[in-house]
Amino acid sequence: MNRREFLKSALTIAALAPVTRLAAGAGADGDKTSDAAEGAQVTRRRYKTSALTLPLLGFGCMRLPRLSPDKPDIDQATVKKMIDRAMKAGCNYFDTAYMYHDGLSERCLGELLQAYPRDSYYLTDKMPVWFAKNPGDIEKIFREQLARCKTNYFDFYMLHALDTANWKLAQTYEACEFLARMKKEGKIRKLGFSFHDTPEVLQQIVDAQEWDFAQIQLNYLDWELYRSREQYEILTKAGIPVIVMEPLRGGSLATLSPDAAEILKTADPGSSNAAWALRYVASLPNVLCVLSGMTLPEHMEDNLKTFSPLKPLTDSERKTLDLALAAYRKRLAVPCTACRYCMPCPVGVEIPRIFGLYNQYKITGNKWLFLNNYNAIPEDSGASACVNCGRCVKHCPQKIDIPAQLKKIAAEIA
Question: Is the dihedral of CA 216, 337, 109, 112 positive or negative?
């Protein structure tokens, strides 16, 4: 998509994006709006030509607030407040997965969403085919997810984290066939997949069968770096709506480097770094929903402000963002999004924590702070403890050579 096409699409969105709120509850084509709506409402986007609309901002539940930073236990009291606030703002799309918070994310949503009628929110989950050992495990996992979430159907459901290996597993275990049956039975309303691989692999999956939607990693850093532009264009050409994950790239685009942040601050003192990144992806016309892993209530408030209503980026703002991106890319060390798919490490190395500290050091240049925080990690969980088994590399969506990066960090510390 060139600049002229983008601007044309953005102008169209600006004119058409605010969808009139329908009556509370499920309507035509399964459209759902929050029965707790109150105050400013997030912009909604229509699913294809149907009456179904989704909030342009979705609540990603991979990084929920924890009771302790070192344990998966969720601070349910805070999450309840955040869900209540989201529902009031019309942000009624909730995305979870089998392994998020070691399974506690599904259970948390199952508990807390009981406070709302089932026809007032969208619930999304995913099938992790790599957890299966045989075709029967696919059904077992799906039934377990329904039980954890205390529901009898999912509004949106995906084959999780498809790449070459997982797509092969999905075929081996006949996951597509099973999920198609679940859709026919009404236990799945919309069937799609989330994706982490090259555009070439994406094209193979798109051509394999009909899909209702797809979820891809998309942000202004990965537009070229991760070939997200090509992925977006493949899906758009195929008529498949896009749901966006990692719009802030694991939170890194919410902080940025001081020089990059200053460029954005000068251009718009009242806007956060996160708002710039979220508006970037939400301005794309084939984006149906943008997921944000909101860990703190203040994250939610800033995001709700950004989407109530959404203001698509102007051409001038895109140029400003290009300048900030150029400044930021000079500082980025490891392209880790802290998704934690590499965890647990067989020998206990704290991979995402180490990469996060290292990236922050390279961005700020504060080596004292880096070493102070790094030395708080137990020695047998540090970078030098890596035994180069390669297990983490197989699960990394970013295709990072994790052992090599850990070796580099260990050498720099020594």
Answer: negative
Which token pair is 270? 């009242």
Most confident stretch, 77-91, 319-333, 375-389: 77-91
Structure tokens at 263: 């460029």
Q: Which of 401, 402, 291 is nearest to 345 (CA)?
A: 402
* pLDDT at residue number 1: 45
SS3 275: helix
Cα distance between the two ends of the chain: 46
Give the tens place of pLDDT for each residue, 145-162.
999 999 999 999 999 999
The answer to whether residues 351 and 343 touch, using CB atoms and an 8 Å cutoff, is yes
Q: Is the dihedral of CA 61, 65, 67, 69 positive or negative?
A: positive
* Cβ neighbours of 408 (radius 10 Å): 15
- Cis peptide, bond prior to residue 269, ω within 30 of zero: no
**How distant, in Å, are the alpha carbons of 7, 86, 136, 137, 321 from that of 315?**
7, 30, 52, 50, 10
DSSP three-state, residue 349:
coil
Interior/surface letters 187-198, b for 16+ CB within 10 angstroms, e for the rest: bbbbbbbbbbbb
